[in-house]
Fold this sequence. Notes:
This protein is mostly beta strands.
Amino acid sequence: VQLQACGGGLVQAGGFLRLSCAASGRTVSTYGMGWFRQAPGKEREFVAACSWSDVSTTYAETVKGRFTISRDNAKNTVYLQMNSLKPEDTAVYYCAARNRYFPISSKSVDYWGQGTLVTVSS
């Protein structure tokens, strides 16, 4: 499975961005999909995940209420809508896939995307 993330960029605090992650190589319809991020000098951290059916979602407390994860299995794509962005959201964002379960921890991820940079200015 190859994951290609895009949609990052520079945005002012309070703004919004939408990240996309397209999967290729095989269908990921039975994979839990998620997003992680890594800020400079920090460890990679979990942001959000959704089940293969998109019925269940889970979020880190730091983004709950501001970010929304969704997926379109017909397009093999997962999205992260990020609203009310804060400077502390600045990081490289990675999409992730885990067979059948939520990708909650870095160690549980089966496949990683290449990352897309999000910079939020104050």
